[in-house]
Specification:
heterodimer; A: 266 residues; mainly alpha; 13 helices; B: 284 residues; Rossmann fold; 2 domains; six-stranded mixed β-sheet; 10 helices; 13 strands; globular
């Protein structure tokens, strides 16, 4: 299936390059901004506790956006970072079955003597390669930005690598939703809509859980609640949440496989 | 695995049915093809040709009955190992060249591309054209590329859905040569078409479908016999007379031959088109 993976990556190379450039630029700016706006000096102003809205958008329920790790965690949970990186998951996932049917390529590809499951597996490899490329670009931007920001540099630049690693299971979860939507939906547009709708709803649920203390429990109902980049940068990769998200993603991928095997492809 | 089912027909439909909700696409279709033959698949728009073909290539799952390739369900990937398929509206990776698209499809079929060069040469798609991105192709070139990908791996069964739609007359002739060459090599071709003259020229037999049901599956000669011949007489005073001549009814011919002022008489053979119209008309 390697030629198929290569062809899909070539077909998406401009999108991957664009999203990678976006992730790189955003996290570069976030890294540079820490020093320039003197966030380390804002701690005392807020009584060493950032407002709930700041914390909610940082994605770290227990973290502090004003600390170097919390600030970079905010970068890795910035809505624009999520849009750029999850665009890969939704684009590749939603395109895997419904996209190929809409484009007409399914008539050539899925009539080959290859099980549909293998095409899904190959599409998953396409997603992984594209996602890793975009995350690597974002990580590179964060590293460079942090290197030019004294406080961040002193806090440890190498630890920034934990954030994109912690992010991969979340991206896999969203991709798995998109794969399942693609396998079940009649059209590419509908698959995109379902995957995007689920993702936006899940994100908002997590933000609300951070904003309103009594609704904190909501975060356990959304995949975004299991992604805390600030804590990952500070404490290292958190295996439990990553394993849980990966497990649910695997269940969704099995569902996608079942739907794809049974559906009509025309 | 394939060797164990080689005695089974390349295509067999048994009670094949496909419904889309309340809409019937194909209903209780029974059809069997012999190897080494070119079989045309005729029907009006919406008759169920493409639905049948899509079940035979594993894209659509039958509601009931079976679509078999060499005795195995077409939905099984293994059954499609010796299949080449050209859809009615072929779509390729537009950013990739013709060659890259062919390489990709040859790789997923896993049988190489022993007949690519000869097919490309016959259809007139040269190396320069194959190096260009498919996004720059005309619709006729896309059609030729689709034909090449369907035959490049030397499949034992080639299924073509409206294959000559966008071909120019010259390419059309070459396409017919290609189909005959495949059949001469003992392989089977199953093609749907609206162009009845093409079917008459290239096919050994024809299966007709109407409203999802098989109307007939007979040889081209047998079907043509069902049609009426056209009789055209010219008389000494320059007047002409045209009439239909049904098989077994020689009376109109005898009447004309008995006339002393007859100076010319032509009888045009029955065509598949007339047989098609008559057969379809009978069932309306």
């Amino acid at each position: 299936m390697r030629p198929f993976v290569v062809a899909e990556l070539r077909a998406r190379r401009r999108m991957i390059a664009g999203l990678g450039a976006g992730a790189f630029t955003l996290l570069l700016i976030v890294g540079l901004a820490y020093h320039s706006i003197g966030l380390n000096a804002l701690g005392p102003a807020f009584g060493h506790h950032a407002p709930a809205a700041f914390t909610a958008f940082s994605g770290s329920h227990g973290g502090d956006i004003l600390s170097p790790h919390g600030w970079m965690g905010f970068g890795f949970n910035h809505p624009m970072f999520l849009v750029v990186t999850l665009a890969v998951s939704i684009s590749v996932g939603a395109g895997a079955v419904a996209g190929e049917v809409d484009s007409g390529r399914a008539e050539l590809l899925f009539t080959a003597p290859i099980a549909r499951t293998r095409f899904l597996t190959a599409s998953l490899a396409v997603w992984l390669a594209a996602e890793v490329a975009v995350l690597a670009a974002g990580w590179a931007g964060a590293m460079i930005g942090a290197l030019f920001s004294g406080d961040l540099r002193h806090a440890g630049v190498a630890a920034l690598a934990w954030a994109p690693l912690q992010y991969l299971p979340l991206a896999l979860f969203v991709a798995a939703c998109a794969f399942a939507a693609s396998a079940g939906a009649r059209t590419h547009g509908r698959a995109n809509g379902i995957a995007l709708g689920v993702t936006v709803f899940a994100y908002l649920l997590n933000v609300v859980s951070g904003l309103i203390g009594s609704l904190d429990w909501l975060r356990w109902l959304t995949p975004f609640g299991y992604y805390e980049p600030g804590r990952a940068i500070g404490d290292g990769l958190r295996i439990g949440p990553a394993a849980l998200l990966t497990g649910v993603a695997v269940v969704l991928l099995v569902l996608a496989r079942e739907l794809a095997e049974r559906r009509d492809l025309a | 695995m394939i060797g164990t089912v080689s005695s089974a027909p390349p295509i067999a439909c048994r009670g094949l049915t496909k419904r889309f909700g309340a809409v019937v696409g194909v209903e209780d279709l029974d059809l069997e093809l012999e190897p080494g033959r070119v079989v045309g698949f005729l029907g009006a728009n919406g008759a169920g040709k493409s639905t049948t073909i899509r079940m035979l290539v594993g894209l659509l799952r039958p509601t009931a009955g079976q679509a078999l390739l060499w005795g195995e369900p077409a939905a099984d990937a293994q059954a499609r190992q010796r299949l080449g398929y050209m859809p009615a509206d072929p779509a390729f990776y537009l950013a990739l060249s013709g060659t890259e698209n062919l390489d990709l499809l040859a790789a997923v079929h896993g049988r190489g591309s022993p007949d690519r060069a000869s097919a490309a040469d016959l259809l007139g798609l040269d190396a320069g054209a194959l190096r260009r991105p498919v996004g720059e192709y005309s619709s006729g070139m896309v059609q030729k590329l689709a034909l090449i990908q369907a035959v490049q791996h030397r499949p034992d069964l080639v299924i073509l859905d409206e294959p000559a739609n966008r071909l120019d007359p010259l390419a059309h002739r070459r396409f017919e040569q290609l189909v005959r060459a495949i059949a001469d090599a003992g392989r089977t071709v199953f093609l749907s078409s609206h162009t009845l003259s093409e079917v008459q020229d290239v096919c050994d037999s024809v299966a007709m479908i109407r409203a999802g049901r098989l109307l007939a599956h007979r040889s081209v000669a047998e079907l043509s016999d069902l049609g009426t011949r056209r009789l055209r007489a010219v008389f000494r005073d320059g007047m002409t007379h045209e009439a239909a001549l049904a098989k077994g009814d020689m009376a109109p011919l005898r009447e004309l031959l008995a006339r002393e002022d007859l100076v010319d008489l032509t009888v045009e053979p029955a065509t598949l088109e007339e047989a098609f119209v008559e057969l379809y008309g009978e069932r309306v």
